[in-house]
Amino acid sequence: MNPVAVALGLAVLAAAGVIGVRVASRHRSTACPAWLVPLLENPYMNALAGSRLLLDRARVASGMAVIDVGSGPGRLALPAAERVGPAGRVVALDLQPAMIRRIEERIAATGVGNVEPLLAGAGEGRMPRDAFDRAFLVTVLGEIVDQAAALQEIHGALRPGGLLSITEVLPDPHFQPRRRVRRLAEAAGFQLSETVGPWYAFTMNFSKPNEGGAP
Q: Based on CB atoms within 10 Å of each CB, which residue in 75, 87, 104, 210 is the most buried?
């Protein structure tokens, strides 16, 4: 079979999937289905929002506790586990059983021992309080039905001085612009620390203030 035709066919199917998700999301928030994982793990995403880049932007270090909200198959969670080392821990939270199964398979294949898959949705109250130094939302915020509740729960799950790192990348069908991300995060009690990257592929880091309001 002609490889060009195969590539073209796959591109058409991927585009159709993205359009379908975007249409559905007009009526309700829709999580990225497991069959669209290749759209998250590809050279384009790795260049604009690769795991190493995002971990560097959030200054993830050895011994930290990290929660990856909407972790998918573990594109960020597993490299984060390597970064924090055996003294740290990573919780990979996702509401889709298919995604949890994928990350469990990757954990078994790699032997990583400090990743804890958690089948739950953001805003359901399943995150432990005051337990994490870093939280990530990578092209996930727009998929969440109750964004305010999710961000409030993440705020409670972070320790004082902890950091929430939100990344948005086009052409994600649920792309959230900077102004909206900032408004939602600040309404939940976060303070903007920095914004990195162009408007179409950016990371915004928000801190949870210490007691007394200091970031």
A: 75
Q: Tens of pLDDT along 168-203?
A: 999 999 999 999 999 999 999 999 999 999 999 999
Residue 4 has what pLDDT?
Answer: 36
Helices (H), the chain: 3-25, 43-49, 51-57, 77-84, 97-110, 147-157, 178-187
Question: Which of 25, 49, 8 is closest to 200 using CA atoms?
Answer: 49
Q: How far is 30 from 173, CA to CA, in rounded Å?
A: 10
What pTM, to 2 d.p., does this model score?
0.83
Question: What was the pLDDT predicted at 123?
Answer: 96
Give one DSSP letter per residue of 173-197, joined into a string: TT---HHHHHHHHHHTT-EEEEEES
Q: Which helix (H) or strand (E) holds 198?
A: none
Per-residue pLDDT tens over the stretch 15-48: 434 444 444 444 445 666 655 555 566 788 888 9
Q: In the structure encoding, which two tokens stand for residue 46, read together?
A: 């790795």
Angle at 88 between CA 82 and CA 89, to 5 degrees: 85
Locus of tokens 């929430």: 164
| Domain chopping of the chain, boundaries | 31-207
* CA-based torsion, 185, 135, 121, 46: positive or negative: positive
Judge contact between 80 and 60, C-beta under 8 A.
Answer: yes
